[in-house]
Design the sequence.
């Protein structure tokens, strides 16, 4: 059974070792916390990025306006003024938000500028114990500036905080004539009333603007992407350790501002303890990903659009570590093969008639090489193509009710996994195609090679590979991103896979 | 691995023999109603009527089992193999010299084909008891050997109803006890013949889920193992819901159960998929000995169970050298059987589903797993060795039988092989 964990590694599932995250009981291994951080030298810089297109900043501003409110209720309790001789009565009113703009003030630092429309507050002021005098306090506009930024914490995740004390300027409107209610006030009394209005605007508006800004930053540079965990695909010694962090010193920002994007970079480390069933092949180099090829943003509307960009070399490294840990060859990788005639063995090798029970087959893959992974384009969209230059695919049937290997097919195994967005906005990996080349079919029954029928063999291999990836493994975005985050589209640009995201913010 | 076995005997009834029998019986192309080869193997064409009749002459030949079968050893040198003979579509028993039919068309013309999933046990007086399921009404059938042949009896259908495999049998005080599943619920029951001849049915209480809050299991695997205790019964069954091996023990009328594999016994955490297939035996000191396949690790494990204390160890690993410096996991133990000698030594025979060969493990079973076990190959050249079965005779002799398929791999070359384990082979 699977022990679900809050901080499991999504990348292990992405590597396509098995549909662990969807299979209820297939001995798909276990997840556990990292016993200690993965050494820094194992980290691949810029393996994963979160990217915000500058072109989406106006929409971010609109989202921030929606989150913080377009009409701000102001309220204040009675306030003594003029040394307590006078009392400003409780007042309330509404601030209409006219415009909000956002811009990157610095890497990882978002500046929010907000302006209100004109409004007026109904006030009352008078000597303590005497009837109050009612007056209108017109406000020409209020202008607010909030700066929030993302910084790295000591544990390698992120924290969004205020970069500076929020600023507010309230520009009083000019009354048509001197306000008689203010005349009895001593010097400075009018300024105290303006200060009370300022304080009411500040407490009501700046708080909401600040919270909305922080929420947006938490969505675009989520702390949850900094994950660490280890995955044991089977019960053997094989283990994959994965850790993603926002690199850099605590307090610094993990962001970079480019001409087109603001990017928040993560480094990814994968360490594998080899299972004896896996080939002992050195891992791919830890390439530093310097460049980011632009990708066109989807034309659909979004609330908080950003993209999770995974570089091909990171996928290669993940696939290598999963294979090294035995993800492809443990008994747990045995998969049911469906969609075939019950007489599948006879269909492939008529000479085996009568040997194998009419029952569904199982399949197991034994790799003798490390997987080669690359991003490709298919008619349906970008995909991850993989191949094992040398592997054996075992097809297991029942003979007299007893499971046994019927076919052992050795050759080059290849497949194409296409990431696709599910109806619930999660990301699933679907086996688009799969097969074997240069396959030599043997059977213990025959004591060696058997002459296989080409078409039934092809169907058998395809069904076996489909069985290994069924149901489609689902990347649990909800464990990594703020609640409500969804994937909207998947694109490829250069050597990177762009997963466009949306959501993850909500009104307080 | 040593490649030694002793006292190997073989019997064969090939297609050629049946054609010869048919030819001698007059089934030539010139016969009026049937032709040579028109009658199933084991039948002859009766010259006078032209009908296919069971060939009495076939009795006394080695049955051609093709599938799992049971082996019991009621007395020294006379192990009895009981299984389904596909060509005769019948349940047959072979004592090394002659075959007798228990059920199916070869035993009674009106019988439907039957005899798969048979279980066998031997009583103290040498009587052999069998249990199997009759297709059609899916009723539980039993039989006992006697001087005049097999006495077949159906278990009272009103008390039990339809049943489904697996079937296991044990004998206490010369009365059979059978473990099987009710078809209506899929849940295990123990069916026992009472001294007055009536059958009692006792539902095996299900253990709770392996962890707090988990439901009781609802699915069970293909392997039950049953032993009779003094005043009780012990049953191992595979809990397919959680992938655990469960031991249920009845003392008097009280049942108790515990998970003994597939779950960490101290922490309760899941420890993989273990227990299918399994085998159970009773040691002379009252301890239980169980063997099972751990599917997650691909290994065979052996345990001595005394009360709640379970001492388990892997006795057969699944790792074999593979290409490119890899280790290639084997499908070991997809079928296994166990027998326990009165002196506490255990024999485990298993099927390697990767090589289609059988192996034999001998282990002094005291719980300490010392000295190391002895592993033996059933040395029969390049043939396939299927469905090994073990039995211990009253003198402690270990009998092993399997189905051997020769180099040609032709189904018709399948033959029953039997052997005994020499005393010098034990560790």
Sequence:
């Amino acid at each position: 059974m699977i022990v679900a964990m809050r901080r499991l590694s999504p990348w292990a599932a992405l590597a396509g070792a098995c549909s662990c995250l969807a299979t209820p009981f297939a001995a798909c291994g276990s997840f556990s916390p990292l016993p200690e951080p993965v050494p820094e030298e194992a980290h691949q810089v810029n393996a994963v990025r979160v990217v915000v297109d500058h072109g989406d900043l106006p929409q971010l501003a609109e989202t921030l306006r929606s989150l913080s409110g377009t009409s701000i209720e102001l309220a204040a309790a009675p306030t003594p003024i003029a040394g307590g001789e006078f009392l400003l009565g409780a007042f309330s009113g509404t601030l209409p938000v006219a415009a909000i703009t956002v811009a990157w003030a610095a890497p990882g630092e978002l500046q929010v500028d907000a302006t209100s429309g004109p409004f007026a507050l109904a006030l009352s002021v008078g000597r303590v114990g005497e009837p109050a005098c009612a007056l209108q306090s017109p406000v020409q506009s209020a202008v607010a500036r909030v700066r929030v930024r993302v910084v790295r914490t000591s544990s390698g995740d992120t924290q969004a905080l205020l970069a500076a004390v929020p600023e507010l300027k309230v520009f009083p409107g000019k009354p048509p004539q001197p306000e008689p209610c203010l005349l009895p006030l001593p010097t400075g009394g009018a300024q105290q009333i303006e200060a009370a209005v300022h304080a009411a605007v500040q407490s009501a508006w700046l708080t909401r603007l600040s919270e909305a800004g922080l929420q947006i930053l938490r969505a675009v540079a989520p702390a949850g992407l900094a994950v660490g965990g280890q995955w044991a695909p089977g019960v053997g010694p094989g283990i994959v350790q994965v850790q993603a962090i926002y690199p850099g010193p605590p307090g610094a920002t993990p962001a970079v501002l480019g001409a087109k994007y603001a990017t928040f970079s993560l480094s990814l480390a994968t360490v594998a303890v080899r299972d004896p069933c896996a080939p002992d092949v050195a891992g791919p180099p830890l390439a530093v990903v310097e460049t980011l090829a632009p990708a066109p943003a989807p034309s659909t509307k979004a609330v908080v659009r950003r993209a999770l960009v995974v570089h091909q070399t990171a996928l290669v490294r993940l696939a290598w570590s999963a294979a090294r840990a035995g993800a492809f060859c443990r008994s747990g990788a045995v998969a049911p093969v469906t969609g075939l005639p019950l007489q599948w063995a006879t269909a492939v090798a008529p000479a085996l008639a009568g040997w194998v029970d009419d029952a569904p087959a199982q399949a197991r893959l034994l790799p003798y090489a490390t997987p080669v992974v690359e991003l490709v384009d298919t008619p349906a969209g970008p995909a991850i193509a993989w191949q094992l230059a040398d592997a054996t695919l075992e097809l297991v049937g029942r003979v007299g009710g007893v499971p046994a290997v019927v076919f052992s097919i050795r050759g080059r195994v290849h497949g194409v996994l296409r990431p696709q967005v599910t109806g619930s906005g999660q990301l699933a990996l679907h086996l688009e195609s799969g097969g074997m080349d240069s396959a030599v079919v043997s059977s213990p029954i025959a004591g060696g090679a058997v002459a296989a029928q080409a078409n039934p063999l092809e169907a058998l291999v395809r069904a076996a590979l489909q069985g290994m990836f069924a149901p489609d493994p689902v990347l649990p975005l909800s464990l990594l991103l703020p609640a409500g985050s969804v994937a909207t589209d998947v694109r490829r640009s250069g050597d990177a896979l762009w997963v466009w995201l949306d959501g993850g913010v909500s009104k307080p | 691995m040593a490649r030694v076995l002793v006292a190997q005997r073989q019997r064969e009834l090939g297609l050629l023999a049946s054609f010869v029998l048919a030819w001698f019986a007059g089934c030539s192309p010139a016969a009026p109603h049937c032709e040579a080869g028109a009658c199933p193997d084991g039948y002859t064409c009766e010259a006078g009527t032209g009908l296919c009749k069971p060939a009495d002459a076939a009795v006394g030949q080695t049955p051609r089992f093709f599938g799992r079968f049971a082996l019991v050893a009621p007395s020294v040198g006379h192990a009895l193999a009981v299984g389904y003979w596909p060509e005769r579509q019948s349940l047959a028993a072979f004592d090394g010299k002659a075959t007798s039919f228990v059920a199916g068309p070869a035993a009674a013309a009106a019988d439907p084909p039957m005899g798969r999933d048979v279980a066998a046990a031997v009583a103290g007086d040498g009587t052999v008891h069998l249990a199997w399921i009759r297709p059609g009404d899916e009723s539980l059938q039993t039989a006992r050997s006697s001087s005049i042949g097999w006495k077949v009896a159906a278990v009272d259908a009103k008390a039990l109803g339809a049943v489904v495999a697996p079937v296991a049998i044990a004998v206490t005080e010369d009365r059979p006890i059978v473990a099987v599943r009710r078809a209506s619920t899929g849940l295990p029951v123990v069916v026992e013949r009472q001294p007055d001849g009536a059958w009692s049915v006792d539902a095996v209480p299900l253990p709770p889920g392996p962890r707090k809050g988990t439901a009781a299991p609802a699915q069970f695997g293909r392997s039950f193992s049953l032993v009779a205790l003094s005043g009780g019964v012990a049953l191992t069954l595979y809990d397919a819901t959680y992938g655990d091996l469960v031991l249920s023990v009845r003392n008097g009328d009280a049942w108790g159960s515990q998970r003994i594999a597939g779950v960490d016994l101290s922490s309760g955490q899941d420890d993989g998929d273990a227990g299918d297939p399994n085998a159970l035996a009773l040691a002379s000191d009252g301890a239980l000995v169980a063997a099972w396949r751990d599917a997650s690790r691909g290994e065979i494990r052996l345990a001595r169970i005394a009360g709640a204390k379970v001492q388990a160890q892997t006795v057969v690993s699944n790792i074999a050298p593979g290409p490119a410096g890899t280790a290639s996991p084997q499908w070991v133990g997809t079928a296994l059987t166990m027998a326990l000698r009165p002196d506490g030594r255990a024999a485990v025979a298993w099927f390697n589903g990767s090589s289609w060969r059988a192996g034999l493990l001998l282990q002094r079973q005291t719980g300490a797993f010392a000295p190391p076990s002895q592993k033996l190959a059933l040395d029969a050249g390049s043939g396939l060795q299927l469905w090994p079965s073990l039995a211990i005779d009253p003198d402690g002799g270990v009998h092993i039988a399997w189905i051997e398929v020769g180099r040609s791999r032709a189904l018709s070359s399948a033959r029953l092989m039997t052997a005994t384990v020499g005393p010098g082979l034990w560790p």
About this structure: Confidence is low (pLDDT under 50) at residues 1-33 of chain B. The two ends of chain B are 13 Å apart (CA to CA). Chain B has two helices and 32 strands.
